[in-house]
């Protein structure tokens, strides 16, 4: 034994081994002497001692109780217990017998839980066996072999006394070659509620029936008019298909008095599947979804199931209130997302289910609350928080379970669900033995709670958010049995929240330090909310420029709500992938409106226009954008007479638009120009486009050439003007001389021009100088003559057209 006590994997030293062996030798001497002096031990005594050693742990035979009917027996009923026994030892069990044993009445709820936790312990008290005629025997049970059993015992043979919960055990007795005496080799305990009569005051029981799933819908939609949605996968189709998890939830809940708790995101996703939808594939591929018929069928069943029942709608996407309270409130805008998720509930649920949902309940994960969670939960308008009794513990020493409703201040009510009843259906319920024990445990806890006191109380059961199909089946069996029982009546959640609170019940919200560390480890980190806030900022910028913002506000807004979903707990990496996918898709849409890159531009004059092109690859138009072109060196290159110029931008969907900016070069060299889009509120949109403008031809020689050319144009124009003026004067002189000649001819031969000098005849000058004009005497002034004729053509514009031509580069 000393050697066995050494650490595993080590070996004692030789000296230590010698000391141990010597000690063992000396210790064995008295034992041998006693054996020689005393008579041999009787077989019965040896059997008794061996029996004590054999009864340890779970036993060598596994006993499984797969069914117990009826779960709530009446006085005239026969209880039938069936299952299997399996020899897990190395030796065959002979003379085996399976019998039913009834233990003592369990007086406390904790005693019920203790029996359920240690249901296979052979050391515990299991009570006397019923009459041998209600047993089942096996001549031999070989190793590894399983045998079925079925025991039917009338209720009056079970010796049930006062009302309450009894421990019932199926035990296998037998012997082996190593231990050839009868002993208990295996046992399985279960619970049997006994309440054949109606109780005076029934307990009001509210059972929440959740229709909640994981996140399935992305932010991506098609560019068509219907905005075809895109799902992450086709897992939702499996859940709503016949036999699927959500299909079973609806089929089972339809026949129960429950309060339906729904996530609007689930309803919206299935509703989207009733029309054309796509499913993401490998890479960036998508495939057409083909489960429209299943989606329509499931929604029709839900509509029928909830008719006349209370429907409590959670905020869209079922946001993780605890994660938001602990890690998100310090990130700007996080609480706004919760408010938006609450505001869209009614308009989402009512058109689909045709019932008006209740929206004033918040349901933190596992009902775990602290002051910060309550504050966040009520910030969006909820005034009732569904908590759970394992975190909202009683401190007043009550001997009974109080009603669920607790006023916690500020007009807020905590609806505290009962933890033992709410957690009993967790685990693998695909095994019949586990499911049977869960049903009996639920019935036992419900009856024990009811028998605690004669006070009227309202009890709420809030199971796990997303039960499996087998868990849902077990829940339905247990709830159906309770609703058929004699101590409980159904009540909806709103009525339970308005029930008279117990004055002795705890109303103080647990402190932050009491929040379970196991739940805190699963929370969304602060970085998740920072990413959501960053995506929201980009979305705000994007919607500002769109002609129809609603096409992106709704899908992206709901995707951001899904990014905070409770369903991401335990899947942090997958949650990060989803959020990154939403942001990346939005970045891709933002990049559809951008500036086209430009190469270096050369200017050959002092002024020119520079075009910048804006491209819009979206299906809708963009507006409320401003394009600013900025010169980084305005002393060399001015834009619009300053360092920069801005122009408004409006581009139709699928089009591009070029915008021209006027520039003025003041010196040779290279100037860097930056083109940047801005939103209406002055925020940058997209990446800037930077390019160089090179001015190469503004030199002294060029200026002299330009000046000389201008001077030549001016001189040429002046010369043309003077020539035309001289020609007009000559024509006028010739007309006057012709008229004078006509008068002289009328006076007779030899007549002279009275205006001419004496002794000189009047002659018609021929080819006289063009610069001289004849002097006009008084006789030439004839009022009857017309005035001088005007020039036949107007002067041409002889000035230069400008110092630089505006051209597009």
Automatic annotation (TrEMBL):
Q: Does the keyword Hydrolase apply?
A: no
Q: Where is the composition biased (Basic and acidic residues)?
A: 729-748
What InterPro entries does the database record attribute to this sequence? DUF6049 (IPR046112), TonB_box_CS (IPR010916)
| Start-end of Polar residues biased regions | 509-519
Spell out the residue ranges making up region: Disordered.
485-521, 729-809
> What PROSITE patterns does the database record attribute to this sequence?
TONB_DEPENDENT_REC_1
Compositional bias (Acidic residues): 769-785
Spans traversing the lipid bilayer? 698-718
Keywords (alphabetical) are: Membrane, Transmembrane, Transmembrane helix
Question: Could you confirm whether the keyword Transmembrane appears in this record?
Answer: yes
Query: What name has this protein been given in UniProt?
Result: Uncharacterized protein
Q: What is the lineage of its organism?
A: Bacteria, Bacillati, Actinomycetota, Actinomycetes, Kitasatosporales
């Amino acid at each position: 034994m000393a050697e066995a006590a050494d650490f595993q994997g080590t070996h004692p030293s030789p000296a230590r081994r010698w000391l141990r062996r010597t000690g063992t030798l000396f210790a064995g001497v008295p034992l041998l002497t006693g054996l020689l002096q005393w008579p041999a031990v009787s077989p019965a005594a040896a059997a008794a001692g061996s029996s004590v050693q054999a009864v340890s742990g779970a036993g060598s035979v596994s006993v499984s109780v797969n069914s117990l009917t009826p779960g709530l027996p009446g006085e005239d009923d026969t209880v039938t217990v069936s299952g299997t026994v399996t020899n897990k030892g190395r030796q065959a069990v002979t003379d085996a017998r399976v019998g039913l044993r009834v233990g003592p009445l369990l007086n406390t709820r904790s005693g019920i839980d203790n029996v359920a936790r240690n249901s296979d312990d052979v050391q515990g008290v299991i009570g006397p066996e019923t009459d041998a005629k209600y047993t089942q025997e096996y001549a031999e049970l070989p190793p590894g072999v399983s045998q079925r059993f079925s025991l039917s015992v009338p209720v009056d043979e079970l010796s049930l006394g006062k009302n309450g919960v009894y421990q019932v055990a199926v035990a296998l007795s037998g012997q082996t070659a190593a231990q050839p005496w009868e002993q208990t080799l295996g046992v399985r305990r279960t619970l049997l509620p006994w309440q054949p009569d109606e109780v005076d005051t029934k307990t009001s029981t509210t059972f929440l029936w959740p229709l909640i799933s994981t996140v399935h819908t992305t932010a991506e939609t098609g560019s068509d008019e219907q905005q075809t949605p895109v799902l992450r996968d086709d897992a939702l189709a499996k859940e709503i298909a016949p036999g699927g998890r959500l299909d079973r939830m609806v089929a089972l809940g339809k026949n129960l008095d429950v309060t339906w708790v729904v996530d609007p995101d689930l309803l919206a996703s299935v509703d989207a599947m009733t029309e054309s939808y796509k499913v993401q594939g490998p890479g960036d591929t998508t495939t057409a979804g083909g489960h429209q018929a299943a989606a329509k069928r499931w929604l029709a069943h839900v509509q029928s199931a909830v008719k006349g029942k209370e429907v409590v709608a959670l905020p869209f996407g079922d946001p993780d209130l605890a994660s938001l309270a602990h890690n998100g409130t310090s990130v700007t805008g996080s609480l706004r997302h919760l408010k938006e998720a609450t505001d869209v509930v009614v308009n989402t649920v009512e058109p689909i289910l045709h019932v008006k949902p209740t929206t004033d309940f918040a349901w933190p994960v596992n009902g775990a609350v602290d002051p910060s969670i309550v504050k966040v939960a009520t910030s969006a308008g909820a005034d009732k928080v569904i908590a759970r009794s394992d975190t909202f513990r009683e401190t007043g020493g009550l001997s009974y379970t109080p009603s669920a409703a607790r006023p916690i201040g500020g007009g807020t009510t905590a609806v505290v669900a009962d933890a033992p009843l709410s957690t009993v259906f967790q685990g693998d319920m695909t095994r019949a033995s586990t499911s049977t024990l869960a049903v009996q445990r639920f019935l036992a806890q419900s009856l024990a709670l009811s028998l605690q006191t004669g006070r009227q109380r309202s009890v709420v059961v809030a199971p796990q958010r997303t039960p499996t199909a087998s868990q849902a089946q077990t829940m339905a069996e247990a709830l159906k049995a309770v609703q058929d029982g004699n101590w409980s009546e159904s009540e909806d959640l709103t009525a339970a929240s308005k029930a008279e609170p117990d004055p002795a019940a705890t109303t103080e919200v647990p402190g932050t330090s009491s929040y379970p560390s196991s739940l805190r480890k699963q929370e969304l980190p602060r970085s998740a909310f920072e990413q959501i806030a960053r995506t929201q900022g980009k979305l705000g910028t994007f919607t500002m420029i769109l002609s129809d913002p609603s096409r992106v506000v709704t899908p992206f807004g709901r995707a951001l709500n899904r990014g905070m979903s409770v369903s991401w707990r335990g899947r942090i990496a997958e949650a990060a992938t989803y959020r990154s996918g939403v942001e990346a898709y939005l970045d891709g849409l933002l990049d559809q409106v951008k500036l086209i890159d430009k190469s270096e531009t050369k200017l050959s004059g002092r002024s020119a226009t520079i075009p910048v092109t804006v491209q819009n690859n979206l299906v809708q138009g963009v507006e409320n954008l401003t394009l600013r072109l900025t010169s980084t060196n305005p002393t060399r290159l001015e834009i619009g007479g300053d360092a920069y110029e801005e122009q408004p931008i409006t581009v139709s969907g699928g089009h591009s638009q070029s915008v021209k900016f006027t520039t003025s070069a003041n010196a040779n060299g290279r100037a860097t120009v930056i083109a940047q889009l801005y939103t209406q509120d002055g925020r940058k949109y997209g990446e800037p486009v930077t390019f160089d403008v090179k001015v190469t031809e503004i030199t002294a020689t060029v200026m002299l050439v330009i000046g000389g050319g201008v001077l030549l144009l001016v001189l040429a124009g002046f010369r043309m003007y003077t020539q035309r003026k001289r020609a007009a004067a000559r024509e006028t002189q010739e007309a006057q001389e012709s008229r004078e000649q006509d008068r002289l001819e009328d006076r007779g031969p030899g007549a002279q021009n009275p205006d001419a000098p004496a002794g000189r005849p009047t002659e018609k000058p021929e080819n006289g100088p063009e610069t001289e004009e004849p002097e006009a005497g008084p006789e030439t002034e004839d009022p009857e003559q017309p005035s001088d004729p005007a020039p036949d053509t107007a002067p041409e514009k002889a000035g230069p057209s400008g110092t630089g031509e505006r051209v597009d580069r």
